[in-house]
Amino acid sequence: MRYWLFKSEPNTWGWDDQVAKGEVGEEWDGVRNYQARNFMREMKIGDRGFFYHSMKEKSVVGLVEVIAEAHPDSTTDDPRWECVDIKAIGPVKTPVTLEMIKGTPELENMVLVKNSRLSVQPVTEDEWRIVCTMAGVSG
Asked: Are 128 and 96 in contact (CB under 8 A)?
């Protein structure tokens, strides 16, 4: 299993929207960055991810699971763009802010710290464990 982080603006697609989709989940569509698309191409069913609210909140607010591997993005006819489907697993007990992550020495090399603009990014197993502990959840 691999781990990921999915960033979204909460006023566009927030945690509550993701939860409302239930077991059927939702496409993680609209990504128009080659690096983020390539990360989605690496994802496998069962991989886990952090659901991260960007903009003002800048925090991990929930856990998600990949339920469909990379396929054409339904929001465009351009064949270059693909997406995965994810479903909500559950909220975190304590949101983990970007400030908290940046203040944790063991997370100094996390992609979120190095490239906070990337909308889909990998998370190492150690980073996953640390952030889950900070969030009060078992991942």
From this structure: no
